[in-house]
Amino acid sequence: MEEVSVSVTVLTAMITPAVLILACGSLLLTTSQRLNRSIDRTRKISFEFKEIKQGNKSAPEPEQRMLFRQLEKAAKRSILLQRAMTLLYISLFFFIATSLLIGIFEILNWIRSWILISFFIIGIMMLLCASFFLVMETRLALSAVHDEMKFRLTID
User: Fold this and answer.
1) pTM
2) Torsion of Cα atoms, 123 then 124 then 129 then 131, to 10°
3) Is the pLDDT of residue 156 over 60?
4) Which positions, given as ranges, span the membrane (predicted)?
C-alpha cells in the first residue's frame, strides 16, 4: 500500500511541470503564428518597395519614409519573436527535464532536490524573459499600427 502512495506522490509531483509544459506549448504556438504574420508583413512592405523602385508604382516621399519605418518595425518584431521562441523552447526543455528527473530520482531513490529546484527555477526564469520579449513585441506592433493609421489619416 505504501508503494502505491509513493507512486501517486511522484506522479503528482511530475504533473506540476507538465502544467508549465502545456503553457509553454500554447505560447510557442501563438508566438509562431505572430512570427508568421510579422514575416508576411515584412514581405508585403518589401514588395511595395520593389514596385516603387522599379517604377511600377508611384509613391510620394512621405509614404516611402513611412514604409521604411514600417519595415524597420516589422524586422524588430521578428527578432523579438524569435528570441521569445528560443527562450520558450529552453524553458520547455527545463520543465520536461524537471518532470523526467523527478521520476528518475524517485526510481533511484536519490535525494537531490537542489537539482530539481534549479531546473524548475531556470525554466521559470526563461518563461519570464520570453514573456518580457512578447510584451515588447506587442507594444512594437501596436506602435506600427498607430503610426500607419496616423499617416493614412493625415494624407487622406
Assistant:
1) 0.82
2) 120
3) no
4) 6-29, 86-108, 114-135
Count of Cβ atoms closer than 10 Å to residue 77 Cβ: 25
Residue with cell 505504501: 2
**pLDDT tens per residue across span 109-141:** 887 788 888 999 999 999 999 999 999 999 999
Domain boundaries, the chain: 2-155
Mapped to the 3 state alphabet, what secondary structure does the chain carry? CHHHHHHHHHHHHHHHHHHHHHHHHHHHHHHHHHHHHHHHHHHHHHHHHHHHHHCCCCCCHHHHHHHHHHHHHHHHHHHHHHHHHHHHHHHHHHHHHHHHHHHHHHHHCCCCHHHHHHHHHHHHHHHHHHHHHHHHHHHHHHHHHHHHHHHHHHHC
Residue 41 dihedral angles phi and psi, to the nearest 5°? -65, -40
Cβ-count burial of 147 within 10 angstroms (0-12 exposed, 13-18 middle, 19+ buried)?
A: middle
Q: Copy the grid coordinates of residue 70.
A: 514600417
Q: Please give the average per-residue pLDDT across 28-34, as a whole number.
A: 95
